[in-house]
Structure formats: C-alpha cells, structure tokens
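chain and backbone:
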Amino acid sequence: MTTSSSRPIFIVGCQRSGTTLLRLMLDSHPNISCGPETRFLDDFAKLTSESWDRLSLYGFPKSYWLDKSAEFFDSFQAEYAKSRGKTRWADKTPRYALSLGYLNELFPRCQIVHVIRDGRDVVASHRDRWGYWSAVKAVEKWPRYIRAARRVGERLPDDRYAEVRYEDLVLDTEASLRALLLFLGEPWDDAVLHPDAAPHDVAGRYEQFSAERRRRAGPDGSVVYRSRVGAHRREIDPALRALIAVRAGPTLRALGYR
C-alpha cells in the first residue's frame, strides 16, 4: 500500500472552533488517517531561524534542514496511516494556524483546512471548559489565529486552502463535508457523518470527547449538535462582550458575524 504523502492535510484553527470534531469526521473516512495532535512541527521552524547560527556551521543549506524535517514528519504519519489501512494522512493541531508559511515550505503540495467559528462562541466555549481567565485570553487569541491563517491562505491556490465554518459543519453537516471532500479530492463516504461509530485511536481521549458531546446532544443523541451555535448570547457577560467588541470586533465583521 502506498500513501499520499505528497498531499497531506492540515486541520488548523483557534482552539474550541470545532477542529476536534472535524478531525474525527475525516478520521472516519476509509482513506484518511488523522491521529492525535502533534504540537511540535512548528518548533522545527527554529532550526532555520533561531538556531540557524549554530546549524549553519555544519555547512548544510536551509533546504537540507527543511527536507529532513519534512521527511521525519511524513515518515511516521505515513507509517501510522498505513498501519490503519489508510492511504493518506492528516494532522490536526490548532496552533499550526500560526505557522502555515513554514508548513507550506515543508509540504508545498499540502492542503490546509482552516476551521472558523464565531469568535464570541469560541470565547464562551473557553469559559465553559476552562474558566473565565481562559475566556479573556481567547478574546486576544482568536483574531490572531484568524488573521495569521488567512494571511497565508490568501496567497495559496484554491486547491490548497479551504475554510470550513463551524456553523455550517453542525447546521448543514452533509453539505459542508461533501464540499470539503470535493476540495480534498476524496470520494464521499457516509462514515464521515457518524464519527462516533468509527474506530479511533487514543480511545480514552475520544471517549472523553464523545461523552462531553453526548451530554449536550439533541434528542437524536448525535455527537454533532447545534445547541452551541450562538451560545455567547446566553453565556457572555457585559465585560467580556465589551472586550470582544474592542479586540475582536473588526475580525468578526470581516468574517460576516454580526
């Protein structure tokens, strides 16, 4: 079996934007393997920036270190995909939204999927999950992630960068996923609509995620639920709302969130 290593998929976006849900949906596809967050690839960028004064003494050009970094990352991802009987690998690490330029250097044919959610709901979700101080920090983080990812995305061809709105993903799931799989060049498979029915690795983490979603699920018990769309209207206090207006207002308006 060969893997489509030259065409990896990167799922990025501010935390609490729906990246985990999308990861499990794509991981349910028979061709795509999307494992746990790696969280270290952006650190490799230091090899050709902060650490370059030292590494340059070895006499190898920057392209050498980029190639070796890409080779290492691709090798274990491809092997992981192969071990699961899949032909293509994806990575879901939200913070890579801040390092898309570097990812593009490593994998010049990769496809980037940027998950975007109403920043006010992102703040509400941070507060619900991690408390008030996390919500305050999310007000600053959310627009920074959006701007960084879009700045790179707007320079890429249409077949390399796509945005998925969280609201579309949960309110019109099939249409959203059909459009995404078309972008990825993958055939449709109903399995992506039922991520809770597919086998996933790191079962403990998945079961925790699934249990959390079922607590909020609608009458049908689906882990894809709509109740968190617009949660900010119920859960954000005036102080947070004012902070959002100042720090994230321009980005919200640019994205069409009113």
